[in-house]
Amino acid sequence: MSEELLWKGSPSQVLNLGKYLIALLLAVGIAVGGIFFPPAWAALILPLGWALWIFIETRSVRHELTTERIRLYRGVFNQKMDDVELYRVKDTSMERPFWYRMFGLSTLIIETSDRSQPRIEIKAVSDGDNLRETLRKQVEFWRDRKRVREVDFDENGALADGSTDDGGAPLA
After folding, report:
1. Nearest Cα to Cα of residue 87 among 60, 74, 69
2. Distances from the Cα of 19 to the Cα of 16, 35, 48, 52, 58, angstroms
3. What is residue 171's predicted lDDT score, i.e. its pLDDT?
4. Which 3 state secondary structure label does DSSP give 148?
5. DSSP-assigned beta bridge partners for residue 95
6. What are the mean pLDDT values of the chain's consecutive 10-residue runs (172 residues total)?
7. pLDDT for position 145
8. What whole-number distance in Å separates Cα of residue 164 and Cα of residue 172?
């Protein structure tokens, strides 16, 4: 079975709307100040450059869901790539803050047993319900195929649900 790309996306720029608003207000303030003090016009480069940087930084974040793993790409100049095998996914949840819901966006939160990526947040993506369902189906497929089972332990080393070992004695 060859690995196929199931979903590819990056965060929406709606994620940065507050920052863009601040940059716009700063630019307007500098422009008004430039009317009274013309050299101030040169300072417009700061809020406009900041807004451009935020845009580029958000566009450089990319997430991919394949039939075998989740790939995470991040970075403008130096790119970092990380993979998480799907059988390592422990739990998924979704957040839909009011602001995101207005634009049909959501954030998918993925808890994993991967040491380098214990928590993955796929922020401000559209159609989060379908993405979460696709991820769930693939995780179940790979867990069954690799015969992986999730076992949680409490602080004392016992199974969190109070289960017993094979001899019938409680695990300690």
Report:
1. 69
2. 5, 25, 11, 11, 12
3. 46
4. coil
5. 107
6. 89 95 95 90 94 96 95 95 93 93 95 92 93 93 80 66 51 45
7. 85
8. 9
Bridge partners, residue 74, by sequence = 80
Which pair of tokens denotes residue 49?
């450059």
Measured CA to CA, the distance from residue 23 to residue 17 in angstroms comes to 10
User: What is the distance between the alpha carbons of residues 44 and 32, in angstroms, rounded to a whole number?
Assistant: 11
Look-up of token digits 């004695």: 169
Residue type, 108: L
Catalogue the E-assigned strands of the chain: 5-9, 62-66, 69-74, 80-85, 89-95, 105-112, 119-126
Residue partners of 152: CB distance under 8 A and separation at least 6: 159, 160, 161
The helix/strand/coil state of 68 is coil
